[in-house]
Specification:
The protein is mainly beta. It is built from two helices and 15 strands. The radius of gyration is 16 Å and the shape is globular. The structure holds N-(carboxycarbonyl)-S-(3-nitrobenzyl)-L-cysteine and fe (iii) ion.
């Protein structure tokens, strides 16, 4: 089923469930070339979420700031290509939410171990906020914090479960959001962590 989280945010419950193993196999292939790493924020904090990327551009952060980069500074090589199964899933989810012809050039892969969290932030490192973001959740459940356009706005709490896909567009694109500290649990497909993929048109 599909439900509106708010204007311009569509939750597609279980949209990725039928292809969960294929998606996680693709993630494993990416991680073999570009291992997960915990990056540093411009303020000097090490993120609790471990990240990697695939596709022409990857989101990175270090002491110099947040940005998209074509090269993985850990390997000195371009990020691994975006596996077809991932590109296809993102395009089909965007289409189901009303965005035809979504062709992402960046896929950020986030790994949350128990205790990892992402504090409230906006995604604004992309060039065109008219492009949607597609987010795929796998493994352990998480509490998604869904705020407003100002940091002070009260955040709704929404559970995101294995296989759920959310498409953020229009006015939802710039809302503050985050992930509450992940609870312990076990999931047979993800080594007891949560994997989130976010597909973006960054350039
Ligand atoms: C996650 N990741 O579950 C989330 C899913 C990130 C990030 O936030 O930046 O890597 S993406 C959620 C999202 C994207 C764009 C807009 C909004 C939420 N929103 O308006 O709430 O690891
Ligand atoms: Fe975000």
């Amino acid at each position: 089923g599909s439900e509106a989280l708010c204007a311009d945010a569509v939750l597609l419950r279980g949209f990725a469930s039928a292809e969960d193993k294929a998606v996680l196999d693709a993630v494993k292939r990416v991680v073999a070339d570009a291992p997960f790493r915990r990056m540093t924020t411009p303020g000097g904090f090490r993120m609790s979420v471990a990240m990697t990327n695939c596709g022409p551009l990857g989101w990175v952060t270090d002491r110099r700031g947040y940005r998209y980069a074509a090269v993985d500074s850990d390997s000195g090589k371009p990020w691994p290509a975006m596996p077809q199964v991932l590109q296809s899933l993102a395009g089909r989810a965007a289409e189901a939410a009303g965005f035809a012809d979504f062709v992402p050039d960046a896929c950020l892969i986030n790994r949350y171990e128990p205790g990892a969290r992402m504090s409230l932030h906006q995604d604004k490192d992309e060039q065109d906020f008219g492009q949607p973001i597609v987010s795929v959740s796998l493994g352990l459940p998480a509490v998604f914090l869904f705020g407003g356009l100002r940091r002070e706005d009260k955040a709704l709490r929404v559970q995101l479960l294995h296989g759920d896909v959310v498409v953020w567009g229009g006015t939802a694109r710039l809302r503050y959001h985050g992930i509450a500290p992940l609870k312990n649990g076990s999931h047979p497909l993800t080594d007891d962590c949560r994997i989130n993929l976010t597909f973006r048109k960054a350039a």
